[in-house]
User: Which sequence fits this backbone?
């Protein structure tokens, strides 16, 4: 998606440890107009998956784009909550997720009230690197007996294994941009299919 | 706001310790259509404040309604990040906030890049009880030399002191609903002005 590539090139910053900082428009300061365009694009990419009745993401940075997509699908968003004191009650699906950026592990939880066998789920998230958050959500979707329609990602780091592994599992993974490589002064994107 | 009152009555649940659980539509499962209506209402309430150029909230549950409001104001959202490893860099405004629901204290941070003297800020949040999160954001707005236009709240607990204290400071606080009292089997709302 050209619009997002341009925004990354103009506002993104590469930090040590393969961190791509996009907090100017995606996950600290939110450019709502851009987020809305991403949501519309997710809808275009997954519009043939007519069974989708729920969008799943993880707090916090997935929430804005998940809502922007959900508006077009006309379905609710459920966001997995982080931490053990996550105020979601005790009857939850849980998964352990390692955060690439923070270098720490945390538990994510979804109340069993909000995910079940009747659900066909689209996962939306801001980043895909090693795929830890997605794998955690997939585990919970399986435990709930729900169906996974696919995964929509804003920025995939193509040089890390998450995307490849998830696609090898047969899951439709569609990323708005895939970063193939990045250095302090250059970011190169994979060409669209 | 009648729509939100009805939703609270049909889906909200009162838990011990004065907790009003609205995770079915606001802060775990998100009813995007409802959230959009709340965003529109915030715009109506603050539309005469034409200087607003930024909406400020706290992760996570404020993000969705802040974005829904920001779409109408055509301004960006900045959400304060929780925790010391918040991945916002070191050049930040910080405040200590006590969470009423979780019974714990945490640090919230905003990068100095995203709040400054040029900003006229509308704070949007899901709940107002003791006003801790708002007071933390106000402290950061003051430190940044920014202007506070007002505070928009989805659900104010009128029997806790936050709203009264903030209004006594001369801040325009507009809540979509004010809960005057609640018990296990009844919730009563303050009449609209």
Assistant:
């Amino acid at each position: 998606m050209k619009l997002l590539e341009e925004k990354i090139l103009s506002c993104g910053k590469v930090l040590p440890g393969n961190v791509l900082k996009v907090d100017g428009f995606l996950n600290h300061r939110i450019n709502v107009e851009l987020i809305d365009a991403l949501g519309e694009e997710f809808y275009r990419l997954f519009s043939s998956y007519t069974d989708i009745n729920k969008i799943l993401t993880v707090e916090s940075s997935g929430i804005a784009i998940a809502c922007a997509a959900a508006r077009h699908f006309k379905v609710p968003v459920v966001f997995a909550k982080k931490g053990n004191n996550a105020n979601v009650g005790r009857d939850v699906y849980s998964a352990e997720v390692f955060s690439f950026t923070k270098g720490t592990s945390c538990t994510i939880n979804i109340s069993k009230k909000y995910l079940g066998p009747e659900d066909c789920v689209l996962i939306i998230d801001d980043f895909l690197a090693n795929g830890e958050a997605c794998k955690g959500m997939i585990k919970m979707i399986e435990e709930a007996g729900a169906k996974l329609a696919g995964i929509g990602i804003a920025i995939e780091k193509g040089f890390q294994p998450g995307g490849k592994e998830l696609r090898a599992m047969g899951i439709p993974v569609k990323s708005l941009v895939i970063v193939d490589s990045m250095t302090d002064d250059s970011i190169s994107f994979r060409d669209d299919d």
Summary: The CA atoms of residues 50 and 73 of chain B lie 9 Å apart. Chain B is about 30% helix and 35% strand. The mean pLDDT of chain B is 95. Chain B has one domain: 2-189.
